[in-house]
Design a protein that fits this description.
Elements: H1 9-20, H2 24-37, E1 42-48, E2 54-59, H3 66-71, H4 99-105, E3 108-114, E4 119-125, E5 128-134, E6 140-146, H5 153-157, H6 162-179, E7 184-189, E8 192-196, H7 203-211, H8 213-216, E9 219-225, E10 229-236, E11 241-242, E12 248-252, E13 255-257, H9 260-269, E14 279-280, E15 282-288, E16 293-294, E17 305-306, H10 309-326, H11 339-354, E18 381-382, H12 386-390, E19 403-404, E20 410-415, E21 419-424, E22 427-432, H13 433-449, E23 455-465, H14 468-483, E24 487-490, E25 495-502, H15 510-521, H16 529-544, H17 554-564, E26 580-584, H18 585-591
Helix pairs in contact: 1-4, 2-6, 6-7, 9-10, 13-16, 13-17, 15-16
């Protein structure tokens, strides 16, 4: 008797469900995507016990007739693919035809749908015993999924606790709301509203509903295109950051996706603005011809392949870097009072007047935020004199092109042997002496690294002993050091000799800097050349800069304050820590109760 046989359909559906349905969020995802594909502009999701007990998704889409309602529960039944060519030009969110039969095989499902001509009610338990009845004609579809995994207890056992399951669902729906600001989403769990958008198409309003007013005020609009991609969305000021990558939302043709290569590109744009392990808040919409992407990689359809990823990364880097360079990034110390509320209300009113929107009798959370970000400062002031330019730690090729990004500051002293206190007509500043000096030296080093190096011979060569595995990596990458002016030799077993170094390495602590640089080239894992150059410059700048808890003279204070103004990015050190914060005149007066506005 043969051992190979065709699986029972119910068993095959349960196996397929293991790939499509792992948690309650997967059920919500598949049903919401079907609603969007059906043309709905209002979608309501109601959960009982985070969806473990019951999930109900209702929409006002085109609905189905009786034949389609029954066919929807058949494996590989779909209205979105007709032939092989359609697979390479997918514009819908769903297309596999696996979601409903997979969900139905591990739960009890009730589908109520109408196309405006006939109403159909379908009930099915565990993928079996389908019942079909007539119902009312309310156009749209409501699907209720109850007792998830009731017939697969092992999978039910491995569901997370209710709070974790709910968190997954909320995170997904937040991203869908950001992807489709023109759709009204409502999420309710145990009769408590967790998310509600008004579907008016304003992406910034959706960001406000999800992240709140403080983050929304610190979001910067971006947009741009090349021959293959059009990008729009919002990026956050570097001071607004999170401890994980979940705050980065990337959307391709309306689909929420996760692409490690694209996320790395975004994070790299912030690498000298933000401390390691912190991530910006990003909402990036990418519009592209469907033929240039492949979404048929995984059943969840969240992974995606780009056929021209290099041009996409180039555009993303250009747009984000340009916007970060255009804005003033000095964090302001705010006073926690009603000022923020009144300011946002002012923004809302100005936007309603601009678009001739009649005020609605709604609460504050439903009002419209101003689409334009109010936190961008005015353009940089021109350089004041040729003498000032000559005092910079690096040369400026053309006088009229170099501008200061911060107004001139007058030093008033140093507190805690670390923070320079300064002022100008806008307010008071606190400058981290080490971070600021590190930024100045970092940009000076980067400029010198682009030039032909001046070699400094060491009177006493530096000997560096390594482990065997480290020595192998070092030998492979020594050419990098030689390109930048280092002279190296192999010396005995697992030992390197450094005989000379470029002039941008400070002589007084050359050995310390060189040992740190060698540590960089022997790191295991994938080697990123651009990251190596940045880290080599940042490491050297750190070692040659005045440290915290160190006394500095008045002249050194003035040198730091003057030179930081003319850096390309004066607002953070190379490792992403802030160099300067400010108390505006208004905030100081508010603190001392000199103003009651």
């Amino acid at each position: 008797m043969s051992k190979i046989q065709v699986m029972d359909e119910a068993l095959a559906n349960k196996i397929a469900a293991g790939e499509v349905v792992e948690k309650t969020m997967n059920v919500v995802k598949e049903l919401v995507e079907n609603s969007i594909d059906a043309g709905a502009n209002e979608i309501s999701i109601k959960l009982l016990d985070s969806g473990v007990k019951e999930i109900e998704v209702s929409d006002n889409g085109i609905g189905m007739d009786e034949v389609d309602a029954k066919m929807a529960f058949e494996r590989h039944a779909t209205s979105k693919l007709k032939n092989l060519d359609d697979l390479f030009y997918i514009e819908s969110l769903g297309f596999r035809g696996e979601a409903l039969p997979s969900i139905a095989s591990v739960s009890n499902v009730r589908l109520k749908t109408s196309n405006g001509k006939v109403g159909t009610l379908v009930t099915i338990s565990g993928g079996k015993d389908m019942k079909v009845e007539r119902c009312d004609l309310t156009k749209g579809t409501t699907i209720t999924v109850s007792d998830l995994f009731y017939n697969t207890p092992v999978r039910l056992k491995y569901l997370k606790n209710l709070y974790t399951e709910l968190a997954y669902t909320v995170e997904y729906l937040n991203k869908m709301a950001l992807s489709y600001p023109n759709i009204k989403f409502t999420l309710i769990n145990n009769d408590k509203v967790l998310l509600q958008t008004d579907g008016n198409g304003d992406l910034l309003k959706v960001i406000y509903e999800i992240y709140g007013v403080d983050i929304t005020k610190k979001m910067i609009p971006i947009s741009g295109e090349n021959d293959d991609y059009y990008i729009s969305g919002y990026i956050s000021y570097p001071e607004v950051n999170k401890g994980n990558r979940n705050s980065i939302t990337t959307l391709v043709n309306g689909r929420v996706i996760k692409n490690n290569e694209l996320n790395k590109c975004i994070i790299d744009c912030y690498h000298t603005y933000m401390h390691k392990g912190r991530y910006p808040v990003i909402v990036l919409n990418i519009d592209v011809d469907p033929i240039l992407v492949d979404i048929n990689i995984h059943p969840t359809k969240m992974d995606i392949k780009f056929s021209k990823i290099d041009t996409l990364k180039e555009l993303v880097t250009k747009l984000i870097t340009k916007r970060l360079e255009e804005i003033t990034l000095i964090p302001e110390v705010s006073v926690r009072d009603n000022y923020s509320l009144s300011e946002v209300n002012r923004q809302i009113r100005s936007t309603e007047e601009k678009h001739d929107i009649k005020p609605k009798e709604k609460n504050y959370e439903e009002m419209k935020l101003d689409f334009e970000v109010q936190e961008e400062k005015k353009n940089y002031e021109k350089k004041e004199s040729k003498k000032l330019k000559e005092e910079l730690p690096f040369e400026v090729e053309q006088e009229d092109e170099k501008v200061s990004r911060i107004k001139k500051m007058i030093p008033r002293g140093v507190v805690l042997l670390t923070y320079i206190v300064a002022e100008n007509e806008d307010g008071m500043y606190l400058i981290d002496q080490h971070a600021a000096a590190e930024r100045i030296n970092y940009e000076k080093i980067l400029k010198k690294m682009k030039e032909k190096p001046i070699i400094i011979d060491l009177l006493v060569p530096i000997k560096i002993e390594l482990r065997t595995d480290e020595y192998i990596l070092a030998k492979e990458r020594l050419t990098l050091l030689e390109e930048y002016g280092f002279t190296t030799e192999e010396f005995g077993f697992n030992t390197l000799i450094i005989r000379s170094h470029p002039n941008w390495i400070p002589e007084e602590n050359a050995e310390d800097c060189i040992r740190k640089i060698v540590d960089l080239i022997i790191e295991k894992g994938s080697f990123d050349f651009d990251q190596f150059i940045w880290r080599m410059a940042a490491t050297t700048a750190c070692r040659m800069s005045v440290m915290a808890n160190t006394y500095i003279s008045k002249e050194e204070e003035e040198w730091i304050l003057e030179n930081i103004r003319y850096c390309d990015n004066p607002f953070t050190c190379p490792h992403g820590r802030p160099t300067i914060i400010t108390y505006t005149k208004y905030e100081l007066e508010k603190l001392f109760k000199r103003t009651l506005d």
